[in-house]
Structures are given as structure tokens and as C-alpha cells.
Amino acid sequence: MIARGEVWLVGAGPGDPDLLTRKAEKLLRCASVIFHDALVGPGVLALVPPTTRLVSVGKRSGRHSKDQPTIDGLLVAAALAGERVVRLKGGDPAIFGRTMEELAACHTAGVPVQICPGVTAASAAAAALGTSLTAR
């Protein structure tokens, strides 16, 4: 599912492993390295096979383990080394996820990159409350 030298930007959803997409779970199982956010819950990380290298690149307000250019460089370097790379992000990668920077870094380096959307926290919160995000 992931070719060697390819990067997938994968949404982990709102933290509940039962809310991962089936595609996201398949990608986690075939990655050789996963760079994950601090917002990715332990239940989601527990689905990762023990042979997969996990690298925390999480950011919290005022405490960044890695800055964005470093993360971009790690993704590209791993792909160019022939790894099957997943960049695992809390929620959906295209919402507050610095996706454009990571896509641009991969494209500039000639690294194939794809996106696997995740369940957004907004829709998950509405479902948990038994309500809708919209009304007629």
C-alpha cells in the first residue's frame, strides 16, 4: 500500500482508535517509519506494529520537539532512503496540519506524497454529543 520512498500524510482522527479510517489503519500497518504528532492518542499508536520505527515530532504551545523545516527534512530524508513513510497527524491532515509545507518539501525533492484524510475533531465532537454540525 505504501511504496518504498513514498510519504503518506495520514489523519489519526480525534484520538479514538475506533474512529480511524480503515485506510489509515492499513497505512499504519505497512509503514516502516511513522512521524507522529503529540495529538495522536496512545490508543492509535498502540495499533502500530512493534517493528515500525516511531518518531515523535509533536508540537505543543511553546514546546516544539522539532521545528517545521526539520520535520520536512526528516520526511524527505526517510523517503529518499527508501522507507515507507507515514506522517501521522491528529484530526485531519488538511486542517491546521501544516500539510502545505510538507507537501511542498516532498514535491521539491521529487518524493511522491499522498493524503489519507481523518475524521475531524469537530464532526467527532458533534457525534459524541448526539447533535449535528448543521441545521436546516
Q: Tell me about the biggest sheet?
A: 5 strands, parallel
What's the count of strands?
7
Number of helices: 5
Our estimate of the beta-strand percent is: 15-25%
Instruction: Record the strand order, biggest sheet.
Output: 3-2-6-1-7
- What sort of overall outline do the alpha carbons produce when their principal axes are compared? globular
Q: Quote the average pLDDT.
A: 91
What is the helix content?
25-40%
Whole-angstrom Rg: 15 Å
| Helix-strand string | EHEHEEEHEHEH
Distance between the termini: 40 Å
Structural class: alpha/beta
Question: Which regions contain 5 or more consecutive residues with pLDDT less than 50?
Answer: none
* Oligomeric state: single chain
Quick structural gist:
The protein has 136 residues and is an alpha/beta fold. It is 34% helix and 21% strand. The strands form two sheets. The chain has a five-stranded parallel beta sheet with strand order 3-2-6-1-7, with helices on both faces. Strands 4-5 form a two-stranded antiparallel ribbon.
